[in-house]
Design goal:
mainly beta; Folate-binding fold; two-stranded antiparallel sheet; 6 strands; 10% helix
């Protein structure tokens, strides 16, 4: 069982949360200018790394807010949780 650190509520059991998929996916600036293949790629293609990964989570049975989690997909270790719009921890950009 994971203990997920909600940035607003603190550590809670994973049963209180729902995963929303990969974080930091940028919507095309001009959707009408992209091809059908590029649009399909944006909608459906996600990385599936073995290792560090950034995901979106929502605290369904708590504050109801969305946030990001940096998690290792093999060990499930959570290295950080941060609010949407904040820079990911360790991101130099």
């Amino acid at each position: 069982m994971l203990l997920i650190p909600c940035p607003w509520c603190g550590r809670r059991d994973e049963s209180e949360f729902a995963c929303g998929g990969e974080a930091h996916i940028a919507r095309p600036a001009d959707p009408d200018a992209v091809s059908d293949a590029e649009w399909a790629d944006y909608l459906f293609m996600r990385t599936n790394p073995k290792g560090a990964h950034r995901e979106r989570w929502v605290h369904v049975h708590g504050c109801g807010r969305w946030f990001n989690v940096a998690r290792h997909t093999v060990t499930h270790d959570i290295s950080a949780a941060y609010k949407v719009g904040e820079k990911p921890p360790g991101d130099a950009s």
